[in-house]
Model the fold of this input.
Amino acid sequence: MTALRELTADEINTLAAIIAKTRPTGAPRWDPAGIRAAFAKVANLDAAEVIKATIRLAQDREARTPGGIANTANPCWSERLTDVEVYVKPDRCDVHGTQRSPLGICASCRADELAGTDTGPAGQRLPAEQVREIVGEIRDRIAKQPQ
Ligand SMILES: [Zn+2]
Done:
């Protein structure tokens, strides 16, 4: 790890100038001196983490000042889910309330489908009614488990 304080004054000045220059169009401008002042308060932290938090805050057009850089409780210090991760995040089945697989499949719906079909070898199948009871019992047990 390289602490921010290990960067040279030139590197800090360049970084502050780049951050100030890359604020979103129409967002309040940041003074490089204000960015350097915020950096000074987190100088002992990992430079890469400070830079990532700084870029996240700098891209927030609502951020009026760079002051949030100095506050590690500020949301800019947290990684955000990418759009792709949000897209594939499993959702819940409307019928059963259970979490769907990443492919959008509900295990309970699939069990219901299988219970209603006669796909097994003759003589080894349970009656559909008995399969439904077993599936219901499993579903109840899953529903009682803490998430
Ligand atoms: Zn379902």
